[in-house]
Structures are given as structure tokens and as C-alpha cells.
């Protein structure tokens, strides 16, 4: 059997990664979501192994040193990471996995698993991005300015990805990603099993 | 504007390239078909510039030496080739082009235009391929044996392509190629124009 696809949805903050991923999960019921490990304390309602794998810092650092993460980062004093073991097991079982992640994380994943399908979500324009971040109402003017500068710089990374999808309209963007997922299943690099089978019959 | 796609449909004789290409042309009305040059004499009903560009051998060889062909071959004493000028002009105008071609030709095209989308059409099995070639009723037993040996060897080339599509059922195969064409339009390498535009606004 062919391995599943690791679909990495990434892009600047405010590009709409989260909304797109939610819609993709609705469309592809079989799509697995990878569960991250974190050293952050569980919040109310969060469940071990479903929301996160909750582990302590000593354990997390040991796992970093053992190269057990597809990617990890320290955010506001807490570690977050994607364990390789879980993701690789799912892929080997033929399951497709979706991973929503920032650009630094995606570049780490690419280094560790170049066979992944890396999709960069773009806002239709930087002024639209600015509007979206403002409308969320969660960031101060200073943070918004920082995010905008960051987004501008991050556009450079788009060419490290396999695909670039402009999110001007969510359904159109989701539709494009659906085509990408279907197309990628026919990549020659994923077809060794079937070619060998044809030879035999 | 982004360049059009050069979609190369290739694979062993009897895999069903021709049927698939006809269906794709029906589905994508804007898909252009490249017109080949040949030294063969025009047959009744064939039109210059539509069926073929009919040129003489001296002219053809001069064009080979000027590196004016995406690919060419000599078949039963006649030359056939795909002129670069026509194809590149269409691509630059943003038109997508489909090219149905044997494996040797496709490998030449890849060398000359690696940005193309190279799709290898596979029969579901070699015994099915054998059946299809027999059913065409155009080949002697000896030729069929040769074609089968050739197909077996040619499976090795599948991995030089971007995609491998098994043609067990024409509509399913056409559907897969439709997804591939839509997906390829979002390739990061084809998105330089749009990323620069986003930066400006």
C-alpha cells in the first residue's frame, strides 16, 4: 500500500490557515490531525492524547535531543512539538494527515519529511491581511505592525513550498487544496508499489 | 500573467493515451493542441498548419541542427517533430497546451522544457495491455510480442515523470488528470507574479 500524504498548511498569521483546515477536515472525513506534545499545563476541558500530549519540560528536552520531533518551538515559555512517531505510524498505515503550522515549523517539517505536501496560504493582499488581523481584535497596534512586517518578510518563504494558494475566498481556496490532495496521490514518487504490481501480473 | 501549462501525456503503446487526450480536449475547451512538423506527404483531407506543418527533409534537418524542436523522431523514413516556437508562444500567452507523445519523445521534451507537467499513463496490468493491443487488430503476433516487451521495459521510465495515472477506467483517469492540471496551476514555481503583486498592494 502507498503511504498516506502529510499535508502541511502554512503561511503568515492572518492568512486564514485555521478556517481552511477546519473546512478541509469537514470535506475529508478520513483526514487525521496530528496531536502535538506540549509542556503547557492542560486547560479546562483539554484531554490528554486528544487536545495535546501533556509532558514535562525535562521529558520534552530529552525528546528534542533524541530527534523525536518533526518540528518544535518554544512559545511564551512553553514547548510545543509534533512527535514523529505518531505521524509516521499514521502515514505508514496509509492515512493522510493534515498539519496546520507556522512558517518556521513548516520549514523544520520539510527538512525532516521532504515527501510532505507543503502548501503556503497567501492573503489576497497585505492590506487585506492588515484588515483581517485588525478585525480579530486580539492584537494591539504594535503587535499588528510587527505581524505585518513579519508577513511581508515571510512571503519570501513561499518558494520553499510546493504550492501557493491565495485565500481570497475560503471555498475557492479549499477547492484548490482538494485538487492538490487528489493530484498528489498520483505523484510518480508515490507509485512504486503499483508499478511493481503491474509488472507481476 | 503566469505562463500556461505544457501537459505531456505519455506512456506505452496501448495504454490509452489517445482516448484520454480526446476526452481532456472535450473537458478543457481552452486546451491547445500543438501542431507537429513532418516530412511525410499530406494525406487526403490533411491541412497545412492544422494537421501538420508539412516541410521537406532538408528544411527539417536544418531545424534539427538549429535546435528548433522540443522533440523529434524518424518513423518509417519520415521525420516528425514538435516545433518549439509555436509551443513557447502559446505558453507565454498563458495558454495551456496538451501533447500526446511516446516515451522517447516525452523524455526529450523534459530535457528541453522541464517545467512541463509529465504524466505517464499506465495500463492496469500487462495482460490487459496485451488484450487491448490484440483487440485493436492492427498488429501481427510478432509486433504484439515486441510491443509487450517494450511496454515492460518502458515501465522503468515512469519515475522520470511527475505523475503516474493508471488507466483502468477512462473517466477515472481523465478525472485524475483534471485534478493534476488544476493543482499544477498552484505550484509555487508558477506563482512569482502573484507574490510580487501582493507585496506591492
Automatic annotation (TrEMBL), chains A, B:
It is found in: Cytoplasm. InterPro entries: GK/Ca_channel_bsu (IPR008145), Guanylate_kin-like_dom (IPR008144), Guanylate_kinase (IPR017665), Guanylate_kinase_CS (IPR020590), P-loop_NTPase (IPR027417). Pfam families: Guanylate_kin. It comes from the Bacteria. Keywords: ATP-binding, Cytoplasm, Kinase, Nucleotide-binding, Transferase. It catalyses: GMP + ATP = GDP + ADP. ATP binds at residues 11-18. One of its GO terms (cellular component) is cytosol. Residues 4-182 form the Guanylate kinase-like domain. It is an enzyme of class 2 (transferase). Belongs to the guanylate kinase family. NCBIfam families: guanyl_kin (TIGR03263). HAMAP family: Guanylate_kinase (MF_00328). This is Guanylate kinase. It comes from Sedimentibacter saalensis. The lineage of its organism: Bacteria, Bacillati, Bacillota, Tissierellia, Sedimentibacter.
Amino acid at each position: 500500500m502507498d503511504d498516506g500524504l502529510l499535508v502541511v498548511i502554512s503561511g503568515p498569521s492572518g492568512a486564514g490557515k485555521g478556517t481552511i483546515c477546519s473546512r478541509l477536515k469537514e470535506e475529508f472525513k478520513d483526514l487525521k490531525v496530528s496531536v502535538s506534545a506540549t509542556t503547557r499545563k492542560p486547560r479546562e476541558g483539554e484531554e490528554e492524547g486528544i487536545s495535546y500530549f501533556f509532558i514535562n519540560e525535562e521529558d520534552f528536552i530529552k525528546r528534542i535531543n533524541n530527534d523525536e520531533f518533526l518540528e518544535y518551538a518554544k512559545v511564551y515559555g512553553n514547548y510545543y512539538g509534533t512527535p514523529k512517531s505518531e505521524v509516521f505510524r499514521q502515514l505508514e498505515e496509509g492515512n493522510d494527515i493534515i498539519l496546520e503550522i507556522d512558517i518556521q515549523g513548516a520549514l523544520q517539517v520539510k527538512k525532516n519529511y521532504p515527501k510532505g505536501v507543503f502548501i503556503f496560504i497567501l492573503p489576497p493582499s497585505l492590506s487585506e491581511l492588515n484588515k483581517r488581523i485588525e478585525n480579530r481584535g486580539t492584537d494591539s497596534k504594535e503587535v499588528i505592525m510587527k505581524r505585518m512586517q513579519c508577513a511581508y518578510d515571510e512571503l519570501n518563504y513561499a518558494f520553499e513550498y510546493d504550492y501557493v494558494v491565495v485565500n481570497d475566498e475560503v471555498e475557492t481556496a479549499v477547492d484548490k487544496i482538494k485538487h492538490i490532495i487528489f493530484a498528489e496521490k498520483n505523484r510518480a514518487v508515490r507509485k512504486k508499489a503499483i508499478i511493481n504490481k503491474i509488472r507481476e501480473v
